[in-house]
Design goal:
With about 80 residues, the protein is α+β, with helices and mostly antiparallel strands. Helices cover about 20% and strands about 50% of the residues. It has one helix and four strands. The protein has one helix spanning about 30-40; strands spanning about 5-10, 20-25, 45-55, 60-70. The protein has a four-stranded antiparallel sheet, with helices on one face. The longest helix has 14 residues, at about 30-40. The termini are far apart.
């Protein structure tokens, strides 16, 4: 079994060109999903989460798949 981590990044208005921050790195997929959704709600809908799964292969972590795709928010 390969080790996996889930990186949740929050993007203002769901735009990669605006302010963003890494919310956290999680070892459980559901915890990462819940954290991203909870943070989006607590920030008043101004930030959208993106969650990416990374697998440990050898000495590196490589991008595996997108768990929560980034959605552009329109105000």
């Amino acid at each position: 079994m390969k080790d996996k981590v889930y990186v949740v990044t929050m993007y203002r208005w769901g735009d990669r060109e605006c302010h963003s921050y890494v919310l956290g790195v999680y070892n459980k997929k559901l915890k990462a999903i819940d954290a991203g959704i909870d943070e989006a709600h607590s920030r008043g809908g101004k930030y959208a989460p993106e969650c990416i799964e990374f697998e440990h292969t050898g000495n590196n972590y490589v991008k595996s798949r997108i768990i929560i795709p980034l959605e552009r928010l329109y105000t």
